[in-house]
Amino acid sequence: GGALFTLLGLDTRLRVLDVSHNFRLEGSLSMLAALVNLVSLNIGHCRKLTGEFNDLCELSNLTYLSIGYTRIDCNQALEHLEAWSKNFTELDLSGTNMRGPLDPLGSLTRLVTLKIQDCFHLKR
């Protein structure tokens, strides 16, 4: 099984979580909501994780987020980024179903790395 989050009994003091490329990892992003001290989250290429981008909004301390090539619903992600975390320095949203204009990214004044390759629904 791949319900890794449950098996780990993740502690709310956790600051960095990288489970990228874990193809067996299953579960909902809502399981991560309690990890409010996370500053770095990499769940890229975890194709069995489910949920919406907004399920991560409780993680307001994040400076690094990689959700590239997941099946997470990012349809309205850009609308919520502005109000979510101005702390982001790195975002990897590659290969997601993110839609809309890129304007909200302008509010992320600390952003130094942005990966949006294979996001076919973005507009200038």
TrEMBL record:
Domain of life: Eukaryota
Pfam families: LRR_Zer-1
Start and end residues of each Zer-1-like leucine-rich repeats region domain: 13-100
Name of this chain's protein: Zer-1-like leucine-rich repeats region domain-containing protein
Natural source organism: Octactis speculum
